[in-house]
Amino acid sequence: MAKEYNFREIEQKWHRLWTELGTYRVKEDASVPKYYVLNMFPYPSGAGLHVGHPLGYIASDIYARYKRLQGFNVLNPMGYDAYGLPAEQYAIKTGQHPEKTTFANIDRYREQLDKIGFSFDWDREVRTCSPDYYHWTQWAFQKMFNSYFDEELQKAQPIEKLIEKFKAEGCWPSDEKEQSDLLMQYRLAFLGETMVNWCPKLGTVLANDEVVNGVSERGGYPVEQKKMRQWCLRVSAYAQRLLDGLDTIDWSDSIKETQRNWIGRSEGTEVEFRVADSDASFTIFTTRADTMFGVTFMVLAPESELVEQLTTEDQREAVAEYVKYVKGRTERERMIDHKVTGVFSGSYAINPFTGEKNPIWISEYVLAGYGTGAIMAVPAHDSRDYAFAKHFNLPIVPLIEGADVSEQSYDAKEGIVCNSPAAGKTPYCDLSLNGLTVKEAIAATKRYVTEKKLGRVKVNYRLRDAIFSRQRYWGEPFPVYYKNGIPTMIPEECLPLELPQVDKFLPTETGEPPLGNAQKWAWDEAARQIVDKSLIDEKNVFPIELYTMPGFAGSSAYYLRYMDPHNDKALVSDEAASYWQNVDLYVGGSEHATGHLIYSRFWNKFLFDLGVSKKDEPFQKLINQGMIQGWSSFVFRLRGTNKFVSYDLLEVQYDNEAKKNRYFYQGQEADPVYADISMVSGNVLNVEKIREWTIEFRNAEFILNESGQYIVNQAIEKMSKSKYNVVNPDDICENYGADTLRLYEMFLGPIEQSKPWDVAGIDGCFRFLKKFWLLFWDKNGELAVKDEKPSADNLKTLHKLIKKVTADIEVFSYNTSIPAFMVATTELTQQQCRSREVMEQMVILLAPFAPHIAEELYHALGHETSVCDARWPQFDEKFLVESTVTLGVQFNGKVRFSMAFAPDAKPDEMVAQVVNSEEAKRFLEGHDIVKTIAVPGRIVNIVIK
RNA sequence: GCCCAGAUGGUGGAAUUGGUAGACACGAGGGACUUAAAAUCCCUUGACCAUUGCGGUCGUACGGGUUCGAGUCCCGUUCCGGGCACCA
After folding, report:
1. In the structure, how far is the CA atom of residue A629 from the C1' atom of nucleotide B76, in angstroms?
2. What ipTM goes with this model?
């Protein structure tokens, strides 16, 4: 009997031995070059790991193992992003402490991860919710609080330097409260009274990236704008560095582009407008300084502070009403319909170029948060201004030759400028732009504005400061207490400030965040410890902040912590940070493009300014694995009944208004209901099984089609517990083994592409491993490998594979290396290869992809050490040289035949070889050769007349 | 609306980046072994025509172009995916 590929036994054995032997433990070693591979750590959700999670982990594990085989000291850690909303909401529902569910989920994740055979160094595991870890999140927050951004140096500086500067300039107030308020405008972590995204349903504020299409990313609840006092991070200070850094890192163009959009750099001009019959003036921002002569009105954002100031008495009522209307609109409403609305303020602004009086309007199409919250409107060359002008009957003055603005505005930044007065013709302005291109005109106006001190050149960024506090329980507490209303940091040596226990995870009855339920939550400044709240009125006892930090706090610097996870003196020691530098390869989903990947770049840049991080950019190369989607299945319940109708019996209508399909059965409407993916095979529902699934189906009536089947409707969607389409990897590991799972996930397609999970092809990968296994054993189950010299064919097969796989791994094209393995295995089987030398290298090549089988075979070949410590095979061209390449040869695009060339043949030799061949001579006879084209080692074309 | 990436057999996807399109796998069909099934192995599998052999024609979303040669480069169109979106 041939020896069977018993993957269960092999995989269990090596999981045990790898742990016992500490195969994947890694230490800093200055004599070996480092390589840092990192996955975005998972949030341990209650649904457990699904087949989408390991996609990125497998890809990076392959790379990590490959780098190790190449002699690098590879850091490949894993941990958990353990703070999050689901655990808290579960806690609210059940009263169970979020820590308990989180830890249970972590244990489950760990168990699932262990089955897949990753080379993670689990001694370095981090959990964001553990005090040893969030100690350093709190520490970094305090450092940000105590820093400001120096515009000239373009880096963070200690706040003390700013105080020195204020003192030197004589503007340092003596009052403590005033000092605090002044510094608050500069600190990198600061308390700000700003418009925030408030989600009433979640009872918390959200960051911009947590709001998608005007509703909360988690839950999809409405979000409204509200002015609140919140902790913020001055991410916007780093806008230019965040933008510049993109040019130094190896990320996909689309992610870089997304970040560039998010940062939204815009070069323009700020111009000051005086208000007629008043001492007031205000500044506007424009990118189209060339259109100064086309301004016909001005617009203020309804939230702007100028509104109050510039509204005249007779317009006061109308303006108040309009502002009230705008406030009543949610973010989503404002996004969905761009209604043209507005009100006249009663005031006029004087155009500094023309002296004309332009009416000042107030409209919601101008945003308070961008630029100065006020614009000059040029209806001829801006479509929004145009719509507004048409609606309110305001004049439109075109400024570009040939621009027809009778139907729509001409927004393009091109053309020749006209309609500006000749130089010196107005008493206000001796600038003429006529005849210039738009680009020249912008530049000329910028110069003019700067010279005449009418304003200044300005760069604006769309990037906003990040709202950094949340009204929730399950997050890092702020190490802050309020001393007479002044936010004060808990001394660094008293960190971490541990999350207090509470009996209820909901807000308090007085509307305080959940931490308001904690009784022992006050800071005794003298004793330097947490004390009971009831002592607050006593001397030196002050209330502690009730907000907690958002989800991205803990995930912003975790890659630094992996370098030195047990250090209780620092986030990371200088030695460890100097050795590991930054992450060489980061793998994760592209959905974090505007969240985590901006925040951690910001966070790292700050720590770089502090000297803690050694690189300005945290993640040198980024690979975005695609999402593995699930097949959701729907059954259809007739409205108001407990009857379910087979999908093929339904009539489908598209509802244009609701933008979705509606379903009817004999005139009765049916609603789709999710059915668990495990109840369905193909598109046929297992009716018996679904009856057992939930009570809802137990006594349901199923209306089947003619063949007696219940057909479900299927859709490809993101895998999620609530869609009942989650496929977990455990079953695959059980039935096929982890090595097959690993191969198959890579074989599915390019790593960066999203694709639905489909087990249909998995047998191919399993068969390959079985064939590979059988290469090593004879019919009696004895090792078939001998110390014999490899044949030329053996070496050719091997080196073809080395070349292909090495090149593939370097560019993460794993899906094409697996076919190469299959071909090589088939070839070696046919060649009946028995050479130890060849077989051993085959094993090493396979080791990154299928580590269990490789380890087993490596030991079967007589090695005592792990295959992880072998050396990656070196490709040698000489084993391929004796082969020939067959190529097509074409005469005048008509005649074609084949000829063999040596792969290193020179173009001239190739042409001569073709021309002198008997076959070619027949065709060439009586023709003139017009030209010959030869591609080195590839192809020859001969054009004849 | 703007920006970015795509479109290749029944399916997932290859194609040395301008050089024999469809590797490899799945599925399907046929065959071998077997009492039978599973497993395994072999053959066929883009379409059409010819199949007595050779073969031939058309084919990479659509329409043009550059080139001896285009899935690949250029221009235009359609469709799908992603990002941003009153950002002045």
Report:
1. 35
2. 0.93
